[in-house]
Automatic annotation (TrEMBL), chain A:
Cellular component aspect of the GO annotation: ribosome
Record bears the keyword Ribosomal protein: yes
Keyword annotations from UniProtKB, A to Z: Ribonucleoprotein, Ribosomal protein
Lineage start: Eukaryota, Fungi, Dikarya, Ascomycota, Pezizomycotina
Name listed for the protein in its UniProt record: Mitochondrial ribosomal protein subunit L20-domain-containing protein
Superkingdom assignment: Eukaryota
TrEMBL record, chain B:
Ribonucleoprotein in keyword set: yes
One Pfam family matching this protein: DSRM_MRPL44
DRBM domain boundaries: 313-383
UniProt keyword annotations, A-Z: Mitochondrion, Ribonucleoprotein, Ribosomal protein, RNA-binding
Name of the protein this chain belongs to: Large ribosomal subunit protein mL44
InterPro entries from the UniProt entry: dsRBD_dom (IPR014720), Ribosomal_mL44_DSRM_fung (IPR044443), Ribosomal_mL44_DSRM_metazoa (IPR044444), RNase_III_dom (IPR000999), RNase_III_sf (IPR036389)
Region (Disordered): 40-75
Subcellular localization(s) per the UniProt record: Mitochondrion
Family that this chain belongs to: Belongs to the ribonuclease III family. Mitochondrion-specific ribosomal protein mL44 subfamily.
From TrEMBL, chain C:
Protein name as catalogued: Large ribosomal subunit protein mL43
InterPro entries, A to Z: Ribosomal_mL43 (IPR039927), Ribosomal_mL43/mS25/NADH_DH (IPR007741), Thioredoxin-like_sf (IPR036249)
Gene3D superfamilies membership: Glutaredoxin
Localization of this protein: Mitochondrion
Length: 200, 415, 137
């Protein structure tokens, strides 16, 4: 308790590692810091707020202190509970409310907007073009032409067997130049990727 | 009480003094017709230890049935069950109900490969026990985890009542195997004809004659729904039952002793034995005793169902699930990260649907963390369990509360 | 097929549902002539009957072993066996040895450092630095 007060009273110059730039003043201050305070005193963290005796509620109350571990798979998320389950009313999802969800960055830089602009005739056109000359009309080119994603082209039509055979030979030619190390690294990567689904 | 009768405690005592002439005579020359007793007197443990004190029935010379010695029989005679210390010890070790006689337990230990006669082997008991086991296990699984996908239910059924588990259980019960089955063997040993070492089991017996139509078409796609209809409870192809005319009905063993049944592995024989014990408990002690036995021996074993999932494309499945249940589309967001530009970064990614967090996962790349978060969310969906679980067989008890319908889910995500 | 099941086997928890006594057989070896077997012979005559009645789940074998010290051997479900030499012991001491063998699990003796071991998952999970209330120092 005493340390937290001391920390709060300390000016921001006392924490030089938090400052973005290094000025000569802070450099001197950093030299003057004792080891004990840096390594021990600062790491004494005040216990969770729910642990202390709360003054406002004199009645019995629940201390909510979620474990610092990955959530168990047996804890069904609140959204997945059926509407008549008792746990819906019992559990107030305090863990997610502590997170500011809107401020969290997304995994992908830009999420493409789904347009749904292609018609049935366009899909027929895609199929015809791909069947006519698979070497020219690749998935990428068709996607550029119709302003959609290559994934949609793959969903709409399939490559001809000749094109598949050519691609297979190209892949074999590339893979034949791999050495043992690269081949093993690629295989290991595939195995690691499979282990994601098993949650290992 | 001055002279101690040592064979009271041991049927297989080794000293020459114990083996008196009459006992030797009784061991080797067993007389009488071969029939399975249908009315067995109930077992009393007080008399159990003084089994050898009972006088053997005098051999009836004028019996209308043919006489056999023990060596001619494929499995031990029924009278031998009362003399086996191993069998009595096994009976007591499993705390089997006293209404289950030792003779039935001895019959449970005789596999079809040892004695092809259906009146003396455990085939009928094991069929009954298998049905009971799978019934209890499946109702427990479906009621406890109503949203489990079928493939996981098959795997969990295999874990609860599959042959590997039953084999492990019979080993943990202390059941020993006889080297070669025969009439002179101690009835407390599991008797089956062993597969010769070095036999390739898959080559030796290709699976033909299954219940599935077009079984020769190996390239055809087998849907999981079709395996509900055609395959067994573990999702494996099942051999079709032979027509009833083929069941052998010869009570008497053939004189040359040639057994036409194929040899089996120890796993198959032990699994059949454990199933037969469950079936025998059901027949002799009733439904409640069988269910209690299942709960104590099978359900009490540890199984982590959350480790039985293998997702191939979890993010896609989660998107389909949210679309099916009319939730907002799942969005992956970075909760925290460390060392992005270093050699070993860690990202913690959560999958959110609207403002609700569905799951979170940590990984060394953003794609891995997102995939793991989707797996966690899908497991959260599939592993939902109602608070009070009641299985349908609870209604069989007297004075049971009226049945309330259990939670039934739409089923797994179909992509 | 979106999700596949991974087959596994349930692991036993002896005593959670049913309890299986791990000692499955006790062998008693004695000598009629030697003086070191005097206590053993007395035990076999007067106490073994009651012991066998109380513990029907143990198979008991008695056999002489002339010109040797008396021995009790316990055979266990895990395949191991433990032998105790009971030469010159009184019947009460032999009874204690028999009880020791009966209650044994058959495993090798090892020092237990933790009072409780479990195969269940911890209730609060495994600590991870990336979860829980993240505090900035």
């Amino acid at each position: 308790m005493a340390t937290s007060i001391a920390v709060s009273k300390r000016p921001i110059l006392g924490l030089p590692f938090l400052l973005p730039c290094c000025e000569p003043v802070t450099l001197q201050l950093r030299r003057a810091q004792s080891t004990y305070r840096r390594t021990k005193q600062r790491l004494r963290i005040k216990p969770d707020a729910s642990f202390g005796s709360s003054t406002d509620s004199t009645q019995a109350h629940i201390i909510y202190n979620p474990p610092s571990s990955a959530p168990s798979a047996y804890h069904t998320p609140l959204k997945f509970l059926p509407p008549n389950d008792v746990r819906r009313t019992l559990r107030t999802d305090t863990s997610s409310s502590s997170l500011n969800i809107d401020a969290l960055p997304s995994v992908f830089k830009s999420v493409p907007e789904k347009k749904y602009h292609l018609t049935r005739e366009d899909v027929e056109e895609i199929r015809k073009l791909r069947a006519s000359d698979p070497l020219v009309w690749s998935r990428w080119k068709l996607a550029q032409r119709f302003n959609c994603s290559p994934l949609f082209i793959a969903q709409a039509c399939e490559a001809s067997p000749q094109k598949k055979e050519i691609q297979r030979q190209v892949l074999e030619a590339v893979q034949s130049r791999w050495g043992a190390k690269r081949r093993m690294a690629r295989e290991d990567r595939e195995l690691r990727k499979e282990s994601w689904g098993r949650d290992e | 009480m001055k002279r101690l009768q040592l064979q009271r405690w041991s049927s297989s005592a080794l000293s020459s003094r114990v083996r008196t002439g009459s006992r030797l005579h009784r061991q080797i020359y067993y007389s009488g017709a071969r029939f399975q007793s249908t009315t067995s007197n109930s077992l009393q443990f007080e008399d159990d230890q003084s089994l050898a004190g009972q006088q053997p029935t005098p051999p009836s010379t004028n019996s209308p049935f043919p006489q056999f010695t023990k060596h001619q029989l494929p499995s031990p005679p029924i009278q031998a069950a009362r003399e086996s210390a191993k069998l009595a010890a096994l009976h007591a070790r499993l705390y089997l109900p006293s209404r289950l006689p030792l003779e039935t337990l001895a019959r449970c230990l005789v596999d079809t490969s040892a004695d092809p006669n259906f009146q003396f082997n455990n085939n009928s008991l094991s069929v009954l026990g298998h049905d009971l086991l799978t019934n209890y296990a499946s109702e427990h699984l479906v009621c406890t985890y109503p949203r489990l996908p079928l493939t996981v239910i098959f795997a969990a059924m295999y874990a609860y009542a599959g042959p590997k588990t039953l084999h492990a259980m019979s080993r943990e019960w202390g059941v020993e195997h006889a080297a070669v089955p025969g009439g002179e063997v101690d009835p407390g040993l599991l008797q089956f004809k062993r597969v010769a070492p070095g036999t390739n089991l898959k080559e030796a017996r290709p699976l033909v004659g299954t219940t599935r139509p077009n079984e020769d078409q190996t390239t055809w796609r087998k849907s999981i729904t079709s395996s509900v209809v055609y395959d067994n409870v573990f999702g494996d192809p099942e051999l079709a039952a032979p027509p009833p005319a083929e069941l052998s009905d010869n009570v008497y063993p053939t004189n040359d002793g040639i057994n036409s049944e194929p040899p089996v592995t120890a796993e198959v024989a032990s699994a059949n034995f454990v199933r037969a014990v469950v079936g025998a408990i059901y027949l002799h002690a009733g439904r409640q005793a069988a269910k209690r036995f299942f709960e104590q021996h099978f359900l009490s074993r540890q199984l982590d169902i959350s480790k039985m999932f293998n997702f191939s494309q979890p993010a896609r499945d989660l998107a389909r699930l949210c679309a099916r249940e009319n939730y907002e589309a799942p969005v992956a967001k970075i909760i925290s990260e460390t060392g992005r530009r270093s050699r070993s970064p860690v990202f913690v990614v959560g999958v959110f649907s609207g403002r609700d967090k569905l799951g979170e996962g940590a990984g060394a790349s953003l794609v891995e963390a997102r995939s793991r978060a989707a797996v966690a969310a899908l497991k959260g969906w599939y592993l939902y369990s109602p608070l009070e679980v009641r299985v349908p067989s609870a209604m069989e008890e007297d004075g049971a509360a009226p049945w309330k319908p259990v939670y039934v889910d739409l089923g797994e995500v179909i992509v | 097929m979106p999700v596949q099941g991974i087959r596994s086997v349930t692991s036993a928890r002896n005593g959670v549902g049913a309890f299986i006594l791990q000692c499955k057989r006790l062998d008693f070896h004695y000598c009629d002539w030697a003086g070191s077997s005097r206590g053993m012979v007395s035990f076999l005559k007067h106490q073994l009957n009651a012991f066998a009645k109380q513990n029907p789940q143990i198979e008991i074998r008695v056999s002489p072993r002339p010109h040797k010290h008396p021995v009790i051997k316990g055979h266990y479900i895990n395949g191991r066996e433990k032998a105790v030499c009971v030469r010159n012991l009184e019947p009460e001491q032999i009874f204690q040895k028999v009880n020791l063998l009966k209650q044994n699990s058959g495993e090798k003796n090892k020092r237990t450092k933790k009072p409780v071991t479990s195969i269940n998952d911890s209730v609060r999970g495994i600590w991870s630095p990336y979860h829980g209330g993240l505090k900035s120092v």
